[in-house]
Amino acid sequence: MSIGSRFLVLSSHFSITMRQFVTASLTAFTRCARGLAVSQANAAQRMTLLIVALTALAFGLRLYRLDAQSLWLDEGSTWVEVTGKGWSALFSELFSPTAGYPLYHLLLKAWVLVAGDSEWALRFPSALTGALVVPALMAAVDELRVASGRMSEGRASAAVGLLAAFSPYALWHAQDAKVYSLLILASALLMWTLLRAVRSGAPRAWLLFASVSLISIFVHRLALLSLAGAALVIAAHLWRRDSRIAHRRAMLWTAGALALSIVGVAGVILATRNERLGNERNAVGMLEGLWFTFAHFSLNRWPGELEGYLRLPAVIWLLPFGALTVWGAVALIQDRRAGRGGAGIVLALFLTPLALFAIVHTLAPVYEARYAASAFPAWLLLLAYPLITHGNEHNAARPSRRSAAHPVVTLLIVVALLACVATLMQPGKGLFSGDPVKEQWREAVAALAARVHPDDLVLVHPHYVMPMYTYYAPRVTPDPLPQPVTFPVFAEGDTCGIVNPTRQQMLECIRRRFEPFYNQQATGKKRALLLIAPDHARTVDPPPLPVDRFGWVGLRFQYPQRTWPCGGIEFVGVLLMCQSFPETFNPGSPGMIPQPAQPLEAVFGSELRLRGVTLALHGGAARAGGALPVTLYWEAVAPPSRDYRMFLHLCRDCDIPPRANDDGPPLGGYAPAGMTTTWRVGDPVHDERTLTLPHDLPPGRYTLLLGVYSGDGAPATRLPITTSAPTLPENRLVLGTVDIAAP
What we know:
Elements: H1 3-63, H2 73-84, H3 87-92, H4 102-115, H5 119-148, H6 155-166, H7 168-174, H8 180-200, H9 203-219, H10 223-239, H11 244-272, H12 286-299, H13 303-306, H14 314-337, H15 341-363, H16 376-388, H17 402-424, H18 441-449, E1 457-461, H19 466-476, H20 503-522, E2 527-532, H21 534-540, H22 552-558, E3 564-571, E4 574-580, E5 598-604, E6 608-615, E7 622-623, E8 627-636, E9 645-651, E10 660-664, E11 684-692, E12 700-709, E13 721-723, E14 727-728, E15 732-741
Parallel strand pairs: 1-2, 7-15
Antiparallel strand pairs: 2-4, 3-4, 5-6, 5-13, 6-8, 8-11, 9-10, 9-12, 12-15, 14-15
Helix pairs in contact: 1-5, 1-6, 2-4, 5-6, 5-7, 5-8, 5-16, 6-16, 6-17, 8-9, 8-10, 8-15, 10-11, 10-15, 11-15, 12-14, 12-15, 14-15, 14-16, 14-17, 15-16, 16-17, 18-19
């Protein structure tokens, strides 16, 4: 065979072989590409499911016991804003420099029109926005991963999602009818959109970032602190470009960051001017404020409230968060030095708001942990950042040292999550403990409704807590309660025209203003009830002595002044106090002896004489679910030998247990008049009592009975009755009949 023939044969074989190789290679590549696509699709599906699952978990936690806690004062202020102002007024506040968060009020007003203004409805928008923080932060983690060129196994995203879901700080704001949950969401979205815009450089990404930035200003002016950090990031991004135009733009962005910082700090100082100063922990310095912020970011607690919980010192509870904070900050700084832009963004959006927040404390040392909320999303990313940098850059020859630390980071995050759960359940402090942790206005107003009489003097103090009474009074009882009296003479910041007054001058000025006004309101009254929030009252009505708990209003009830104490109940942040006047109040002169509307003569056991009874119905009717106010008028006909108790029974068939009753000593048992052994012969006593009527009480006519006993209340211990009025067996006096109105 010739050489040419052999060459042709070899060429043919080579061609066939190459075709087979190329075909096999293309087939293999296609299979690999398909497998990779399927793998990527599966990874995307898994990440989507993870985001949905963690968002649903966060939403469920935020809805859990959403209305279990009473509204507190600031939530009541939110209710007043959205229900007391019209649309035009709320729209105008969007551009008012004195309105802190106008967009929130507009959105909540629209929601209230649909869902009503119950506690659950008022808090639901915060719960929803709080849950949406989870996908926003997980999207930010994904942007960090892409910007750093690292592969992600989802651990960092899951860690951030879990920390956001279980964070006591985030949960508190998510169950609060205030703007701060929405502010946290706006800050998280601001960070995500900035990471995306810097990474991609696409005009659409920058437009999205600009839109979120603009909206965040209307969400809360505190967003200016985060925008100052964002402006610094953009300026640094432009400085890295080798262009005069870019450098000029960088100078403009730097100036903008400075302007935003000044405006933001000034806005916070203006807001703190009206903050409550009664709590000594509110006035703190810069470093102490940052320490408190770290404690609140971690577990939403003051360190002292964690001391000794589960026999652990406070530092143990905060240790995992502290370790993760330091670890994440070091990793971010290292990545920033390595030129990974995403790390610089997280640092800027974390440090800038906190630094400006610290400046606020230097200028105006009034501490509120919620003012640092704009830095909270970046802090959560900082905690999980070591998981992003754990070294899976696919360099088998030089495995990262950080990969060996990955289990330690995971363990710290697990411990931090366990600490979050434990503090949420902490008795007396935790949001999910079942104990009251917010001001108990609902319970306090309900207690007042259960004992108030239509002719009582009802006082609410300080004057700016009146919305809480207005909100709860129609919700806790069907009865129309008396209109309370407030003390507008107490004005926060009023110095009585004195330049730099001393404490004693201020106290004397307040006393002179308070006494005439109180005397005018109390004249002719035989009993007064006070609903007071001591911590709030101290800001406008400082105690005469530092050791005192109350100012002039509360002290009048705490120490008898020609009055009988008639009991009180203390709730979280609120007290109900009572005082009864032996004679109708008449300052400086004798009053009149209160007389019954229905005279009735009856002697119990030859010692106590009933002079009569007054049945004063709220709005002229008794209603199921309401209260039945009864005043008993007594005097001793012989020195009482025991401290007797009285019972009132309301019955239709009086041979079976009563449908409603009130049982106890007179005036709640408080000395002197509450103890019958102190009664002097012939001295008149009036005893206001109230029967709580069941919600399911059928309408109709009922009989009201009275008895007096000295032992356990059994018929054998009841005092015999001498009277011409009707009685029933077992020493029960018929006071009269009561008609229960149909609902």
